[in-house]
Structure to design on (74 residues):
């Protein structure tokens, strides 16, 4: 599903893994929407995600999550 949001951006749901997660992705964790502000590479393909709230989430190479990704309108 995708849709327009204010500011001319397009929001779309994407499946992400440790290899494809990006800064700015919004992931719902425990019923709260958390925006990824930074990423840290860990051994064996894992990544640690730092959210704007200061919380950390570690995902391994096999973790699959759904995120909202904003893309700019051209």
């Amino acid at each position: 599903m995708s849709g327009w949001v204010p500011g001319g951006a397009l929001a779309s749901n994407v499946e992400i893994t440790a290899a494809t997660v990006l800064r700015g992705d919004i992931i719902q964790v425990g019923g709260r929407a958390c925006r990824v502000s930074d990423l840290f590479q860990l051994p064996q393909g894992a990544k640690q995600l730092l959210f704007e709230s200061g919380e950390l989430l570690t995902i391994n190479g096999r973790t699959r999550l759904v995120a909202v990704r904003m893309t700019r309108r051209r």
About this structure: The radius of gyration is 13 Å. The chain has a mean pLDDT of 87. The CA atoms of residues 49 and 57 lie 5 Å apart.
